[in-house]
Structure formats: C-alpha cells, structure tokens
Amino acid sequence: MKSFPSFVLASLAAILSRGYATSTCDVNGKHYQVADTISRDVCVIGGGSTGTYAAIRLKDAGKSVAVIEKVDQLGGHTQTYIDPATGVPVNLGVAVFHNTSLVLEYFARLNVSLTSIGISGGGASIVYNDFRTGLIASNYTPSNPAPGLAAYGAQLAKYPYVETGFDLPYPVPEDLLLSFGDFVEKYSLQSAMPFIYGFAQGLGDISSLPTLYVFKNFGSDILRLIATGGFLTTTLHNNGLLYQSAQAVLGKDVYFNSTVMTMDRSGRDHATIVVKTPTGMVEMQCKKIVFTIPPKLNNLHGFDLSHNETKLFQKFKNTGYYTGLVRNSGIPDNTSVTNIGADTRFNSPTLPGLYGLSQVGIPGLVDFKYGGASSLSDAFVKQDILAATKRLQVVGKNESAEPEVAVFYSHTPFECHVSAEEIKNGFYKKLIALQGQRRTWYTGGAFHTHDSSLLWAFTEELIPSILA
Ligand SMILES: Cc1cc2nc3c(=O)[nH]c(=O)nc-3n(C[C@H](O)[C@H](O)[C@H](O)COP(=O)(O)OP(=O)(O)OC[C@H]3O[C@@H](n4cnc5c(N)ncnc54)[C@H](O)[C@@H]3O)c2cc1C
C-alpha cells in the first residue's frame, strides 16, 4: 500500500476538519481565495509565552479563540533540547519561573508540575576568560554582589510602578533615564554589576541602556527570588511541556506556520484578518485581537497599522540574542567559562560576543549564550562562536578538538527599546494609549519586559478589558 508522509496526512486532516470548500473575500482592496472562514471572539497573534497564556485564559473564560503562530510550535523563546543519546532535556531558552500564585495556578491548570531550582550554574567550576583574546583572566575575582544588590534594591524601591508596566510619571525621573552604567557609578553598585549583567542577558550592553529597562528586567521579585532561592522550573526540566499541554487544550484553534497576509480593523462588528496557513488562506473574523509579537515594522507586513502605531513601532530598536549548543568545544566537562573584559568598564564582556559557555550535564556539549546590541546574521554569530571557542585557553582543554555549533536558535529581535529621549518625551504614554484601540490589546516583551512570569501577570491585567 502506498504510504503518505505524516505532514501530508496532517494537512489533509486539517483541511477536512476546517472545511475544504474555497470561497473568496475582499480585504483592503485585494481579492483572496480562502479555504476557510472562521469567526472568533479573540484572535491572538503570536503563540509564544504571552500569546499562549492569553489564549488559555480567554478560552477558559468561555471565549472562542484562534492563535496565529508563524512557526510549528507554541512557546516562542521556550526551547527545550532533548539529547537523542541520553534523553536529557536542556532548557536552552526560558529556564526559570517566579514562585507566585499566578504561576502556580497556570502550571496547575496545564497539569505541569514544578520544582525549585537554583541559578548557580549546576556544579561546574566557573573560569573567567576574556573571550576577545581567549586568555584566562587570572587577575579577575568576582566580587560579592550582596552589598551592591542591596543598594540596587533600595534604589529600585523608589519606582514601584516599573514592576507592572510602563505607566511612568511625567516628567520621568532622571535616574530612570540615566544609562545604567552611569547609574551604577552614581550609586556605587559596581559589585552587583557582573551579576546583573549575567542575569539580564539578551538586553545587550546594559551599561548603555536607560536604567528603566534594567529595573524592569531585574526587578524586586527577582531580588526576592535570589534571596529566598525561590525560582521554579518544571519537575522534568522540560519547559516545553507547558506548551505541549497548552497545545492539547487549544487544539486546532492554533494555526501553525501561519502569517498575516492582510488585516482590516475598521469593520463595525469585527476585524478581518486573512491568514496564510499551510492549508490555504483562512479568513478570520475577530471581535478582538491580542497582539503579542515583536512590534518591529519588518515583522508587521500585512498589518493595517494606524499612523500612530507606525510612528511608535518604528522607534523600537532591538538587541540580538542567540542560544544553542556547541559540540566538541574541548572544554573539560566539569568547567564552564564566563566571558569578562579584562580591561573594560565593570569588566563587562565585549558584545557582540558570547556571554559564556556552560555545562549542561551532557558530555561533549556546552550551552552558549550570545548577545549583541542589534540583529546579526546567523552565519556571523555561528562563525564568531566557533572562533571564540577555538581561542579559549582553559586548563585541561583538548586543543585539537574541532568545535561545531550543534544546535542554534535565534531569539532576535529580543529586547525592544527606545532612547532615553523618547522615554522622556512620552513614548510609553503613547504606547499605553493604544491598548483597546481598534479592537486590539498589546502584550509581550516589548510592552513590559522579557520575563514569562511577569508577562503573564501583565497579560492577566488586560484580561478583564478584553473580556468586557
Ligand atoms: C535564551 C532565553 C532565556 C530566557 N530565560 C528566561 C527565563 O528563564 N525565565 C523567564 O521568565 N523568561 C526568560 N526569557 C524571556 C522570555 O522568554 C520572554 O520574556 C518571553 O518569551 C516573551 O514572550 P513573548 O510572548 O513576548 O514572546 P515570544 O515568547 O517570543 O513569543 C512570540 C511568538 O510570536 C511568534 N511570532 C513572531 N512574529 C510573528 C508573526 N509576524 N506572525 C505570527 N507569529 C509571530 C513567534 O514565533 C513566537 O512564538 C528568556 C529568553 C531567552 C531568549
């Protein structure tokens, strides 16, 4: 009997379950042949951390939903690698969650159990190298971050509103606009800087970012969790399970490998989105829209952006952030290597570059985290990682090892941010004013900060007005 590849069968099943009769629709003056027309209370754009949370919450509240996701799985920055040889899972993206009632309830809802986890590096001994030269930084000893963190916490406590969003007072306090490097010097927080730099990976060179962004990412709940050892992860150390479970709940309401072709939010009763899916165009009639994707103009082709939306979104700059695994690094299996600058301000690593190479508990594989102030090509990042790994001098290193990038994920665009001048001039007041306009609610990293637990709390605050 002739057999069909599973993706063909899956596509057929999807067509049959969604209806295969084609019809047409006209949106924004264009004519589309559509395989299906659906009506939903809420269409969620992006099935990452916030989009999945929003979809589950809204579905549980009795709303019909559709999720438009451009790749083939939910979870966004949550990437769990399962080693084929050992079966060991490694969370290369989102690793830890806050111990809050909202997080506990969400995981319980999706039947995924949690356990405590430290953030100390898993037992490997850490050596410090300047990755520009590969040399061991023998004169560098990390300082005890505790006094700096306490002083940082005292400053942070003056601005409680940064913890919940971008609802800032105007004029915006000068210290929030100060570059974080200058802020650290102003309040003598140097001892905490390497720790904060390491935690806020992905934000690029935090010394040059307005302090506001660092406060939001490294906020009071992070300080609490560090002090109490209260971080959580999934019991099986496979954070992808949360999204597999969510996918089972959402079923065929998730449109994978799908993108917006065009959108019209001017209708009286609903917005219309034409979505390109693997099984043809789908016309979605949406009473409301939850927007969760990076709001960069080059990611918004087909969106009917208003003048205001365009003016705001085009101001976002973004950092680049890349993760994965290097095989055959030559670094001994009991050693992790952290990048520092032997002669840089705060001994911060020079970016673009590796933050470090860490053990994951699988012999021959190390985790890499690589960051930069802007998007870089995957080819450049891979080549830079390999060159830096080769250069590294580490006691016991196998110098003849030929490293290779075994797993690579681009998390770019990552941190979306604007200049201190824009913040001062009311950028976020205007951004917040978009909420609920044109049937659209905005959430996700750019609208709060890159922390899943905090984003779920932020999204939760929007739920009543989406439900209203
Ligand atoms: C390496 C790494 C480690 C991290 N570690 C942690 C951690 O330990 N704990 C923590 O809380 N947070 C962590 N974060 C941050 C956390 O992942 C983010 O804050 C969170 O995922 C942001 O959620 P989001 O929904 O805004 O974006 P995402 O999770 O990225 O979701 C966006 C989704 O939209 C999709 N999409 C994008 N563009 C389009 C489009 N045009 N059309 C349709 N779909 C689109 C994407 O494919 C993606 O699925 C980490 C991030 C990274 C990169």
TrEMBL record:
Keywords: Signal. It holds the Pfam family Amino_oxidase. Residues 54-322 form the Amine oxidase domain. Residues 1-21 form the signal peptide. Gene3D superfamilies: 1.10.405.20, 3.30.70.1990, FAD/NAD(P)-binding domain. GO terms for molecular function: oxidoreductase activity. This is Amine oxidase domain-containing protein. It comes from Coleophoma crateriformis.
